[in-house]
Write a structure and sequence with these properties.
Shape: globular
Number of helices: 8
Order of helices and strands: HHHHHHHH
Length: about 220
């Protein structure tokens, strides 16, 4: 009986070692929660600052409207707002994930992290180029749906190198982006749900599942 138990423990240890060597496990659920909070804050700022533009800006805008001073200011504001959200999200992700790795006694950054980052970056880069093309042609109504869809594809692509829970988040983002393609005028709301609410829900679930018992609070 003892020999059978020792064999099971050995197999479990081998499985854990293989899992650690092939997946980036340092990703913290708290980083997702904070990313969601920052996204909601950024969406709220954009909502109150540009709410008239969001609901009255034409889907297919002529070039002279796109290059007007007012619209140029809108693009600048939106770029700064989104850039601030991205910076704070990356910073919180770095801090909390590094803390998780230190507490778990696992490497924070290794070759699996690079592979996860690469698989995440390729769809994101394609999505950024696609959204820029939409902007150039004045089809701004589909930029929010496109960001959600490409972000979901990026999460799906990277999920095989990190926690499996990321796959479900990616599927949710894609589904939300497809819905946003139907209700185009409410892109900012779908964006806030996708990057804000979903991040908070999945981040909290990941923290509860993987970090709560290990002092992840």
């Amino acid at each position: 009986m003892n020999e059978h138990r020792e064999q099971l423990e050995a197999l479990t240890e081998i499985r854990d070692l293989m899992n650690r060597s092939s997946r980036f496990l340092s990703l913290s659920g708290l980083s997702g929660v904070f990313a969601g909070v920052f996204a909601l804050a950024g969406a709220a700022v954009a909502w109150f600052y540009m709410r008239d533009v969001f609901f009255h800006f034409p889907l297919y805008a002529p070039v002279e409207v796109l290059t007007s001073e007012g619209i140029s200011e809108f693009y600048l504001f939106f770029a700064l707002d989104a850039g601030g959200v991205l910076f704070l999200s990356l910073l919180s992700g770095w801090i909390f994930s590094k803390r998780k790795a230190r507490r778990a006694g696992i490497p924070f950054w290794d070759h699996t992290a690079w592979r996860a980052l690469l698989n995440l970056a390729i769809p994101l880069a394609a999505g950024a180029i696609f959204c820029f093309a939409l902007l150039m042609h004045g089809v701004i109504g589909f930029i929010a749906p496109a960001t959600l869809i490409f972000y979901g594809m990026a999460l799906l692509n990277a999920s095989k190198y990190t926690l499996n829970d990321i796959r479900y988040l990616g599927i949710s983002e894609i589904a939300l982006g497809l819905l946003a393609c139907i209700w185009v005028g409410y892109g900012i709301i779908f964006w806030a749900i996708g990057f804000g609410v979903l991040h908070i829900i999945y981040g909290a679930a990941m923290w509860w599942k993987y970090e709560r018992g290990a002092g992840g609070s």
